[in-house]
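Database export, one record per block. Field names are fixed; values are copied verbatim from the stored entry.
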Amino acid sequence: MPAIRITPNRVFLIHLWIIGLLGLAFGCVVIADQLGHPTLMGISREFRLQEEANIPSFFSALALFATALVALAVCHALPQGDRDRLGWKVVAGLFAFMAFDEAGQIHELIMLPHALTKYDRYLHYFSVFPYLGVAALLAAILFPFWVRMSREVRFMFAVAGILYVLSAVGMEVRENELVTAGLPETSLPLAINYALEELGEMLAVALFLRTTLTRLVELGGGSVLPMEVEPQAATETRSAPVHIGSAPRPAAAKALLKP
């Protein structure tokens, strides 16, 4: 099968376009809600960002899984015995779990029973706290690994991580406040909150994917899918070719770096 030729920036741009289209579709659903047409014959549910098992949820799971695959490719592109291989395996496992969580709604299974709605303001999002603990533990473990990254990769990972936490946790807390105040599901304030939360998470994952691809480019190649990641244009950020699919031998990959 011929390889599909891509670059990290090209993937990022396509990712942004899809996020924008999903945001636009959700905006149309919100307008319909405000006009008194919340169902649209069942179509609106397929584009509600806060819903599970629909188009935005599927796309989010796919993007997370793609990031896990690229992180695994980075691990295999590193020399045997490199101390960063373990770190990339952890990153790949983390994103694979997040993809499974997004698709399988694992976090929904550890929500507190609805009987505790009397204390909803404080306990309704109990599922957030285990994730915060795991995130803090992983951050502490992976900090030396993060420090060893190149400046660009290190910076973009930090930006993506902060954006994801602010969107996933910060907006969840705000959502709980709005729900506790008695606002209906289709209210405009809740819709804005959902958009900031879900689109913020999607943007963070897009940054994670681009940054992971950039690291793969720095290493000169890797093999995951029938895709070939090309060098960026001369006016873009410096990068080496990465092959996702039929990866070249290390010598061939180095040769492609020569002007």
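Remark 1: The chain is about 65% helix and 5% strand.
Remark 2: Residues 53 and 104 are 8 Å apart (CA to CA).
End of record.
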